[in-house]
TrEMBL record:
Residues 65-171 form the TonB-dependent receptor plug domain. The lineage of its organism: Bacteria, Pseudomonadati, Pseudomonadota, Betaproteobacteria, Burkholderiales. The keyword Membrane applies. Residues 1-30 form the signal peptide. This is TonB-dependent receptor. Keywords: Cell outer membrane, Membrane, Receptor, Signal, TonB box. It is found in: Cell outer membrane. The keyword rRNA-binding does not apply. Belongs to the TonB-dependent receptor family. One of its GO terms (cellular component) is cell outer membrane.
Length: 990
């Protein structure tokens, strides 16, 4: 596409200046542009018929070359045949795009180092509702809910444009589906696949699914009437997948006194105190160090059924008017079963060996337990979730005159996620053998090795201990109406304009039914020995370095969750405690109403080297209202040595609000230096809205507290969005029809970045037994800080004191019961996590991209590398409140292809460097670093004839594993092993 060479006059400049002046902060407008208005240069979507992988790459090249600003994309090889089976995995082939995986499958996208919450995902130009129980309060779109068969292309806008909805600081991604008028005539196909996920093989029998091969089926039908006035397109797909993952984890985080405070939970013996001689390479006084709360090995089986469908009707009553009505449905059902074994540390007498400071992690941490009467915890889970998406919309496109086109678009979409099991959306049923002696954790290899002395499963039989049954719910709704237009001002100039109103509602709710009887809830005699199934650990982690250690405690029991849950309910006489609640403890509801408008003027210049410019201005005003159901805390009860339960009364609703408005300019410039060389420059301002948990309207306390207090969260509805000023420069060389090379650099200044902060408060004035009269008397009697000793002293010397309820002694001789905080006891401190606009930051980077086709040989290669950098990094040597960019990482892709009349083959290797994935672990403000990860995917297609083809695909062919660590590499948080996935299929075109 070459821009028309029309001579520009001062009139054109005057029009551009007038357009910029028309929008003022006093005007109330909203988000705009739907469907076709997001096409390059504001023009109508141009139909490109593609029939193979090389044609798909050619179409993607044309999209990049002919667009305003920096736009990359992926175009389907054929209708109903997208290059990848997962949309997120397809997107990762684009330079600058990285993905987050869940269970080995692409789920969320990060663009140019900007995390998933700050990338806007559109569906045919419309803002889509999203929900995800794995991230109850996020804005990121879960691509796992959408099948790829009905997608015709994905456009990735890396630079801002006035006609694009806001929210995408990293990028705006537009997922476009098939339209019958875009491909006149009859087009239909059906495809089937058989899927074998090897990760399902490497699981215990109690969580493994017996079906080793699962089906996928998809089909699409599109047709138009002979006169071209009517069109219909129907697509559908159904997919099953049985998979699994095995994980070694310090899931409750790393605890430590950190710098300058040796009295916190997690302290190692100090010089001159008992046990101090057992520490090798002790952290220096000013070093930061921490120790693990637990070490857990879990084996998880996952079943998924995904159903997608779309109906599109088009009608052109006259040539100048096209109406489109479409409905989209998706359902993603997931069933999860888990068995695990873990050891929990109580930070008693210990020995340890440490890595060098100033940030130290234990190489080996050993807790001395004698006699061997602590718990070897073995748990199970069995839960299910369901996510449904519904979207309906209508679009009217009218060519009013040869120079004026108007468009109206309205739609409503909902996304709802909830439990799909009588056992809730998540749960854990704990069991234990109380025969654990001295326990060690070795962190010198990738796999953390757990060693246990004294275990005796015959003498100390398995019994059910504590349990949790959770119910999560999330629903997002988007209602949007948009009016836009394109007016051809002169032969080579165009004015785009639009108004819109958008209403976004988000509701997230949660309840937790927890029985804090981790010291033993029932008797071993309540369970026949046949319900416990002996197994070993090592084989489930054979791909992770260190799992072959001879020191590994290599035995545990699995069990059927439903069977043992029923036995526990019967034995306890409290069946309701072994089911989720029917009401929610927390219920957060946030509404956002946005009005906006935009003007954008595009023009071409008749110069020696053709120039195209686009200047735009967008105004937005958003009102926020956030209501939260806040449980009222009433008490703190010590239920075990390391478990303090917060009691709650009747919850109450609180409502807070906020508002903000922004004026967002944009400027795009490109010049054809030669017929095959294009230079670009873009400047634009964008915003990224806060997460829903950041703007919740109330303060919520966590149910489980510890010796040193509790935790909670509090939102800030007045939080401003992050505002980013973006500058992009690039050079593109299209040296053959299907080949190009490009180099781009970018810089983003982020203002009002919302970071997580922590403050200490005493909400509800809750009294804790810790530090009270009875506690201090026990400590002075010789117990010191040993919580087990303190409990025994109180129960045996003050069994009838206020708040003390003694139970019988357990099999290890320790007293059981509860101790409730009294009015004379100290008030507990809670660490409250909140958010504030307290940081400005910047990031910059570069992208190198190459696509080369080797003449008519059929061979080709794609390669790209993205480098990103920001000074806003996590400081591992600092504690407390920090602001850091999540998802910031370098990434690279290498894709080799071959195609001829019969064969199409592609091998794609994707690599992502280390990145910060969270600033909170299972304990508190500690970093999570996802280590570098690479994956190889291969696909081969054979065309039997022009209608029938066969495919073979392999995902994660080299069986890569993933690892996440904390402040040092030895502070492992998660080490995960899954497995390759293989598919074989056929596709028939009618």
């Amino acid at each position: 596409m070459q821009y028309p060479k029309a001579k520009q006059t001062y009139l054109s400049l005057a029009v551009a200046s007038a357009c910029a002046a028309l929008v003022t902060p006093g005007v109330t407008f909203a988000q705009s542009t739907a469907g076709a208005s997001l096409s390059p240069a504001g023009a109508e979507v141009q139909t490109v018929v593609v029939t193979g992988l090389r044609a798909s790459l050619q179409s993607s090249l044309n999209l990049k070359r002919n667009s305003d600003g920096l736009v990359d994309g992926i175009v389907a090889e054929d209708i109903g045949k997208f290059p990848d089976t997962n949309l997120a995995e397809a997107l990762q082939r684009i330079s600058g795009v990285s993905i987050d995986r869940n269970n080995g499958e692409g789920q969320k996208v990060t663009v140019r180092g900007v995390g998933p919450d700050f990338n806007m995902v559109l569906f045919n130009g419309r803002q889509m509702a999203t929900s995800n129980l794995g991230d109850l309060n996020g804005r990121s779109f879960d691509f796992a809910n959408l099948a790829s068969e009905a997608v015709s292309q994905i456009q990735v806008y890396k630079t801002s444009r006035a006609d694009s909805p806001t929210g995408g600081i990293g990028a705006t991604l537009n997922v476009m589906t098939a339209r019958p008028f875009a491909r006149p005539g009859l087009v239909s196909s059906i495809g089937v696949k058989a899927v074998h996920d090897t990760s399902n093989n490497n699981l215990p029998g109690d969580v493994k699914d017996s079906k080793k091969v699962t089906p996928e089926i998809s089909g699409i039908y599109s047709n138009t009437s002979a006169d071209g006035r009517f069109g219909v397109a129907v697509s559908g797909s159904y997919q099953e997948r049985n998979s699994g993952s095995n994980q070694a984890a310090v899931s409750s985080g790393w605890h430590g006194p950190f710098r300058g405070d040796e009295n916190n939970w997690g302290t190692i013996p100090q010089p001159g105190t008992p046990g101090a001689a057992g520490i090798t390479n002790r952290p220096a006084p000013n070093d930061i160090y921490s120790v693990p709360q637990n070490l857990n090995y879990s084996m998880t089986g996952i079943k998924r059924q995904r159903t997608n469908g779309q109906l599109t009707l088009q009608f052109a009553p006259i040539k100048e008017l096209v109406t489109t009505l479409d409905y989209t449905y998706s359902e993603n059902k997931i069933q999860t079963k888990r068995n695990d074994i873990s050891a929990w540390f109580n930070f008693g007498p210990s020995t340890s060996t440490w890595s060098p400071g100033p940030v130290s992690g234990p190489l080996v941490y050993t807790e001395i337990i004698n006699p061997a009467n602590s718990d070897i915890a073995m748990g199970a889970a069995d839960f299910a979730t369901k996510t449904q998406n519904n979207a309906i919309g209508i679009n009217l496109a009218w060519r009013a005159t040869s120079d004026l086109k108007l468009e109206f678009d309205a739609h409503k979409s909902t996304a709802e996620s909830k439990a799909d099991s009588p056992f809730g959306s998540n749960n854990t049923l704990g069991s234990a053998s109380f025969s654990r002696g001295t326990t060690s954790a070795d962190f010198t290899k990738d796999f953390p090795v757990l060693s246990i002395e004294g275990a005796d499963f015959v003498k100390a039989r398995q019994q059910v201990t504590g349990s949790t049954f959770q119910n999560g719910y999330m629903k997002g709704e988007v209602a949007q109406a948009q009016v836009s237009g394109r007016w051809k001002v002169r032969e080579a100039s165009q004015l785009n304009f639009g108004l819109a109103a958008t209403k976004v509602d988000n509701r997230s709710a949660f309840s937790n039914q927890q029985r804090d009887t981790w010291g033993g809830a029932t008797s071993p005699a309540d369970y026949p020995s046949t319900v416990w199934h002996a197994d070993t650990v090592r084989q489930y982690f054979d791909q992770i370095d260190g799992s072959d250690s001879t020191k590994l405690f290599n035995q545990f029991y699995t069990f059927n969750f439903a069977q043992v849950r029923q036995l526990a309910a019967n034995a306890s006489g409290l069946p309701n405690l072994y089911l989720p609640k029917t009401t929610y403890d927390t219920d957060r509801r946030t509404g956002e109403k946005t009005r906006s408008g935009f003007l954008q003027f595009n023009t071409d210049w008749n110069t020696a080297m053709p120039i195209h410019t686009g200047i735009g201005l967008r105004y937005e005003k958003t009102d926020v209202s956030s209501t939260a159901l806040v449980p009222s805390a009433t008490s703190i009860t010590m239920v075990s040595a390391n478990e303090f339960s917060v009691g709650f009364g009747a919850p109450t609703f609180t409502t807070l609000g906020g508002s903000y408005h922004h004026l967002l300019p944009s400027l795009d410039f490109d010049i054809d230096v030669r017929k095959d060389v294009k230079l670009r420059a873009s400047y634009g301002e964008t915003i990224g809205r806060p997460r829903y948990d950041q703007i919740q309207g109330g303060q919520t306390l966590d149910q489980l507290a510890r010796v040193n207090g509790g935790t909670g969260s509090q939102g800030n509805p007045a939080l401003k969005p992050v505002k980013s000023k973006n500058l992009d420069l690039s050079a593109e060389w299209y040296y053959t029809k299907s080949s190009f090379a490009s180099l781009g650099v970018f810089h983003k200044n982020l203002k009002d970045y919302a970071g997580q902060s922590t403050f200490t408060a005493q909400p509800f004035a809750l009294h804790t037994p810790v530090g009270g009269a009875l506690w201090n008397q026990a400590a002075a009697s010789g117990c010191g800080t040993d919580a087990v000793c303190i409990r025994n002293f109180i129960f045996r010397n003050h069994p009838t004191a206020p708040g003390v309820t003694r139970g019988k002694d357990d099999d290890t001789g320790n007293a059981t019961g509860t101790i409730v905080g009294q009015p004379s006891d100290p008030i507990a401190n809670f660490r409250i996590n909140s958010f504030s606009n307290a940081k400005d930051a910047s990031l910059h980077g570069a992208e190198v991209n190459l696509q080369h086709m080797f003449g008519n040989s059929g061979f080709g290669v794609q390669a790209n590398y993205t480098w990103v950098h920001s000074g806003l990094k996590y400081d591992n040597a600092s504690q407390g409140e920090q602001f850091a960019l999540l998802g910031l990482s370098n990434s690279a892709n290498l894709v080799g292809i071959f195609e001829n009349s019969k064969w199409t083959a592609r091998a794609a290797y994707n690599w992502r460097g280390e990145f910060l994935s969270s600033t909170f672990d299972g304990y508190g403000p500690n970093p999570n670093y996802t280590e570098p990860f690479g994956q190889l995917d291969v696909s081969v297609t054979y065309a039997y004839n022009d209608k029938l083809s066969f495919q073979v695909e392999a995902i994660n062919l080299t069986n890569e594993t993933q690892r996440v660590h904390g402040r040092t590499k030895t502070q492992v948080l998660y080490a995960t092993q899954a497995g390759p996935r293989y598919m074989i299929g056929a596709r028939y075109k009618f």
